[in-house]
Amino acid sequence: MAGAVRSPVHRTAIAVRPVLGLLPLRNAACTCQSRDQQPSQLSTPSSNLAPSRNFTSCTTSRKTRNSDSWFSNHSMHHTMATGDGVASSNGGGEGSRRSLFFPRRAVMYVPACDERKVLKTTTISVDSIIFDIEDGVAANKKDVARKSIGAAIATSRRDDSQSSLSEHVVRVNGVGSGLMNLDLREVFRSCDSHGVSPDAIMLPKVESVEHVAELDLCLSFHRLSLPPLPLFIMAESPLGLLHLHHICHFATHGTRHLRLAAVVFGSDDYLASIGGVRTDSGAELAAVRQAVVGVASANGVAAIDMVSTNFSG
């Protein structure tokens, strides 16, 4: 995973809420998450790269086509990127269509089992779309979600789609769930049947180097000779944050089938794990958020931040 790419500064239309105790960042972003059980999220970082697409912003000064109904009753969270642009390794197959330097300025999460929301992605122009089969999908819908990944990616990549050039990421269930290997097997089987491949994998609830190593081992059975696949890891517990630097270093230098692309801070699961209470200011998480930014920056990858509820669009 290459480091961040520096480029001239450009003014952004994205409004980012200041957070107590956080140092100024080169890039900031916002992400919206559905309030219902199956979330769809959109992050739109303010990048120092010149914008190449129109994004729906917090200030609503720019809107993507047909975005009003999509963003109703959604919440907002910020993401913090540690560089001006992130270099993405090619994933092989369809994944190899990613350019060497791929800015992840806007990230939308969609439950893979929800056909209506998958179809809606074709009308929204974002950098990355994450098809979810973890927390955004009910337990009795996970098998449907796994088998729908190939069709979801193929639909989103249609030539007439606003999302045809987006990066398509799959969020699997965590190692501790016991579902990860089944997820990977069915996801790649579904993708093969539609002639597509995910551009990256997101692994939630990462707490140790061993979790990344297990994912890497599982991928060795499903992607035998393909280039490393970009990896997003989610730190959602005190243990995950304690080990985060070692996890990032291993995911960058110690894996054969993966290469670290981003670190995601799961604030809600983190607060639940420590018995914490969420406040409007978010001050109780300021130190932890800054720590995530520091570790991500030290490892040359993007940092994706916590959820808040002050988005309207």
UniProtKB/TrEMBL annotation:
UniProt KW keywords: Lyase, Metal-binding
InterPro entries per the UniProt record, alphabetical: Aldolase/citrate-lyase_domain (IPR005000), Citramalyl-CoA_lyase (IPR040186), Pyrv/PenolPyrv_kinase-like_dom (IPR015813), Pyrv_kinase-like_dom_sf (IPR040442)
Annotated HpcH/HpaI aldolase/citrate lyase domain residues: 105-310
UniProt region (Disordered), positions on chain: 35-76
Any one Gene Ontology molecular-function term assigned to this protein's record: metal ion binding
Record PANTHER family: CITRAMALYL-COA LYASE, MITOCHONDRIAL (PTHR11105:SF0), CITRATE LYASE SUBUNIT BETA-RELATED (PTHR11105)
Protein name in UniProt: Citramalyl-CoA lyase, mitochondrial
